[in-house]
């Protein structure tokens, strides 16, 4: 009996969203303003990178996910530099992606620079100050009414009013105590967060010291161990063997909705690249025909990758994740011309090749 399904490997090209502000109102406003650009990515999956947030642990992932989904932006996974963050992500049913060591090392100096030199107690919020002051004013006002009631001439009304005012004063004092207790709880939470951060830094320092001690012990053992004479090594005979090339050559038109991907190499197209199609390569992309789709070079992060196009009429170009969308007609100096696309300091450069017709 044949199996109902088969599991195979697959590769999905995604774009990354670097989240710098988790406020829902701010996100909604920017998504509405960028709706025209986001329509170019309709149906494409996105990975949400949260490691640049000031407080990623306090992020409401469910609310942020719903906010993007309401504007046709599909978030399929969450990225962060700390493996512990996975526990927060999985409870919402989303995959977690740990940022690579190279990206993590680049993010550490910035994170350390933002840590204050000494812990400070958070200032009392304006809302708490107004609430406490308002309650104190009401207590003062009731005390004045109580004094007036005690001086009144009617004994029955006076006694009822005095008792009522006393009960209100007791209730307001309890509310003042609760407000002040809430402020104290916030200060205790802030102190615990500072203590946790200091403990984590101390733990990382101890781990580094232990690693250095281990390396020194291994080096000492190697120096003290007598070395055995090594047998002569017979040099292998050098032969000129043919080498394989990871380059993919496409000599047929690439239809709309079709995707070509060269893992670890280049792509060379000698036929039409239609609108709605994708050419993806970890290396360079050469298109010696009209180009009307999307081209993504340096997909694995190679910033030195290039895109060579014989007739530029495309929708999107990208190198190492830096992209540019052409939602308007290209200028006459570039449209239908031979161009080369490169990445310079995080900016895409499109240069016409006047020597190629």
Overview of this protein structure:
- The chain is α/β, with parallel strands linked by helices and 357 residues long.
- It has three domains: 15-111, ACT domain (Alpha-Beta Plaits, 2-Layer Sandwich), CATH 3.30.70; 136-200; 248-352, Pectate Lyase C-like.
- 38% of the residues lie in helices and 20% in strands.
- It has seven helices and 15 strands.
- It has helices at 24-33, 35-38, 61-70, 86-90, 101-113, 126-150, 155-224, and strands at 15-18, 45-49, 74-80, 96-98, 248-250, 259-262, 267-269, 278-281, 285-291, 294-297, 307-312, 316-319, 322-325, 339-344, 347-352.
- The strands form three sheets. The chain has a six-stranded mixed beta sheet, with no helix packed on it.
- Strand 12 (316-319) and strand 13 form a beta hairpin.
- Helix 1 packs parallel to helix 3 (61-70) and helix 6 (126-150) packs antiparallel against helix 7.
- The longest helix is centred in the middle third of the chain and has 70 residues, at 155-224.
- The relative contact order is 0.06.
Helix/strand order, N-terminal first? EHHEHEHEHHHEEEEEEEEEEE
Poorly predicted runs of 5 or more residues = 108-119
Q: Major beta sheet, specifics?
A: 6 strands, mixed
Strand content: 15-25%
- Spatial separation of the terminal alpha carbons: 59 Å
Which sequence of strands runs across the widest sheet?
Answer: 5-7-9-11-14-15
Which percent bin holds the helix content? 25-40%
Rg calculated over all Cα atoms: 33 Å
Q: Total number of β-strand segments? A: 15
Q: Calculate the mean pLDDT score and round it.
A: 81
Secondary-structure-based class equals: alpha/beta
Q: What is the CATH topology of the largest domain?
A: Pectate Lyase C-like
Q: What is the number of helical segments per DSSP (H or I, 4+ residues)?
A: 7
């Amino acid at each position: 009996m044949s199996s109902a399904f088969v599991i195979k490997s697959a590769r999905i090209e995604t774009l990354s969203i670097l989240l710098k502000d988790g406020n829902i109102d701010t996100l909604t406003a920017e998504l509405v303003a960028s709706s025209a650009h986001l329509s170019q990515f309709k149906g494409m999956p996105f990975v949400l990178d949260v490691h640049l947030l000031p407080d990623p642990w306090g992020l409401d992932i469910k609310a942020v996910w719903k906010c993007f989904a309401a504007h046709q932006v599909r978030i399929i996974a969450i990225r962060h530099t700390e493996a512990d963050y996975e526990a927060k992500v999985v409870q919402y049913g989303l995959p977690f992606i740990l940022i690579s060591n190279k990206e993590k090392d680049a993010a550490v100096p910035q994170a350390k620079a933002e840590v204050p030199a000494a812990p400070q107690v958070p200032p009392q919020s304006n809302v708490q100050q107004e609430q406490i002051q308002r309650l104190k004013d009401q207590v003062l006002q009731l005390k004045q009414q109580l004094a007036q009631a005690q001086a009144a001439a009617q004994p029955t009304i006076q006694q009822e009013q005095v008792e009522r005012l006393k009960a209100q004063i007791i209730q307001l004092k309890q509310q003042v105590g609760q407000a002040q207790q809430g402020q104290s709880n916030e200060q205790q939470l802030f102190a615990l967060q500072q203590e946790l951060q200091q403990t984590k830094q101390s733990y990382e320092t101890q781990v580094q010291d232990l690693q250095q001690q281990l390396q020194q012990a291994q080096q000492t053992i190697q120096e003290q161990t007598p070395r055995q004479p090594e047998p002569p090594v017979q040099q292998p005979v050098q032969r000129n063997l043919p080498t394989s090339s990871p380059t993919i050559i496409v000599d047929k038109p690439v239809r709309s909705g079709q995707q070509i991907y060269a893992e670890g190499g280049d792509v060379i197209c000698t036929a039409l690249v239609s609108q709605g199609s994708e050419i993806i390569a970890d290396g360079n992309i050469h298109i010696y025909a009209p180009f009307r789709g999307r081209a993504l070079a340096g997909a694995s992060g190679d910033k030195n990758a290039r895109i060579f196009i014989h007739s530029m009429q495309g929708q999107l170009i990208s190198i190492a994740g830096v992209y540019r969308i052409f939602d308007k007609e290209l200028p006459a100096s570039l449209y239908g011309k031979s161009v080369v696309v490169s990445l310079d300091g995080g900016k895409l450069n499109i240069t016409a090749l006047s020597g190629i017709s």
